Amino acid sequence: MKKKTIHILSIESSCDDTGAAVLENNRVLSNIIAGQKIHAAYGGVVPELASRAHQQNIVPVVDQALKKAGIDKTQLQAIAFTQGPGLMGSLLVGTSFAKSMSIALEIPLIPVNHMQAHVLAHFIDEEVQNSPPFPFLCMTISGGHTQILKITAYNEFEILGETIDDAVGEAFDKTAKLLGLPYPGGPLIDKYAKQGNPKAYTFSKPKTPKPLDFSFSGFKTAILYFLQKEQKKDPDFIKKNLNDICASVQHSIVNILMNKMKKAVEISGINHVAIAGGVSANSEIRSTLKSMENELGWTTYIPKFEYTTDNAAMIGIVGYFKYLKEDFGKEDTTATSRLDING
Ligand code: KG4
Ligand code: ZN
């Protein structure tokens, strides 16, 4: 039997990126993202400014997504949107827009969990991307989350470990801030690290009560003290050694992440290993994970670069799976700033 062709418009507005995508079944026809440069001046996302920027961006971003896909809104079968987790003001913009559009077009509304979307981004364009089989492990590493998950089906997620304080993206961004780099600093640390020595400085590994949990707040403080100590000896320490500091910090973080992943493989006995989320754009984590194929016999899954940081295509793929199960939202569906991975 020929598969019915479904067109879904998806909207992402959980933090500081306004995204809209059109999917034809599991295939992306367009994936538009408008970032918000305004936050760089503040050293982090300012929630009120983020909500206002979403209000400004959402209509042109959706328009562009439809135009690029060559799809008229009357051809859509459903509207998917990020329900949570995220910043309430930001989520409300996408939620209200999606709800109004679904009512106007008389088509289903599909609420999507942002964390599930990061993981299921691996199933976008399954014929082209290398998608994992079930069960697989996924380390979701982003600005708000750090989790190791066992995924047994499109809608079955088990948390094997997670951060007990800061997310790994925060460790990158806060270190960057200490180094005088603008927000978000993760990509800049990655860039400067390419020219530095990863073994120039060492930082002690954080300890956690549970073997698969993470902790990054102590790590961040250790870097602060290290920089203060070195700057006392030489006020230009950061300027002179920026590349080496970035390379060493990044290398330490990647080591922490990989050690946890190795433990998770040992404990679960599953060696299909994926990464997801904004930090999975990092070049060192991508190459180190890949090297585990030869070193430890894992099969690894690294998402296409454009599906790592926040984007609407990943919301659309979850929307598509939920559409097939007729798992729709209702008129009173609301945005939820805190949402569990299975929520
Ligand atoms: O998934 P994401 O776009 O948003 C959240 O849901 O949090 O992740 C954003 C995080 C930021 O902390 C950013 O600095 C980090 O991902 N990030 C990176 C890189 N690209 C983005 N961190 C390290 N290296 C990168 N190349
Ligand atoms: Zn995200």
In this structure, how is the largest beta sheet organized?
5 strands, mixed
Tally of DSSP β-strands: 10
Indicate the radius of gyration in whole angstroms: 20 Å
Q: What top-tier CATH class of the largest domain fits best?
A: Alpha Beta
Percent range of helical residues: 40-55%
Note the run of SSEs as H and E. Answer: EEEHEHEHEEEHHHHEHEH
- Rounded mean pLDDT is 95
Query: Helix count, per DSSP?
Result: 9
Describe how the helices and strands are arranged.
Layout: E1 7-12, E2 18-24, E3 27-34, H1 47-69, E4 78-84, H2 88-105, E5 109-113, H3 114-120, E6 136-141, E7 146-153, E8 156-162, H4 168-178, H5 186-193, H6 217-233, H7 237-268, E9 272-276, H8 283-296, E10 299-301, H9 313-324
Parallel strand pairs: 1-4, 4-5, 6-9, 9-10
Antiparallel strand pairs: 1-2, 2-3, 6-7, 7-8
Helix pairs in contact: 1-2, 3-9, 4-6, 4-7, 5-7, 7-8
The structure holds 5'-O-[(R)-(carboxyoxy)(hydroxy)phosphoryl]adenosine and zinc ion (ZN).
Describe this structure in words.
This protein is of the alpha/beta class and 343 residues long. The protein has two domains: 132 residues, 2-Layer Sandwich (Nucleotidyltransferase, domain 5); 173 residues, ATPase, nucleotide binding domain (Nucleotidyltransferase, domain 5), CATH 3.30.420. Helix content is 41%, strand content 18%. It is built from nine helices and ten strands. The strands form two sheets. Strands 3-2-1-4-5 form a five-stranded mixed sheet, sandwiched between helices. The chain has a five-stranded mixed sheet with strand order 8-7-6-9-10, with helices on both faces. Strand 6 and strand 7 form a beta hairpin. Helix 3 crosses helix 9, helix 4 runs parallel beside helix 6 and helix 7 packs parallel to helix 8. The chain is globular and about 65 Å long. The site of 5'-O-[(R)-(carboxyoxy)(hydroxy)phosphoryl]adenosine has 19 residues, from helix 4 and helix 5.
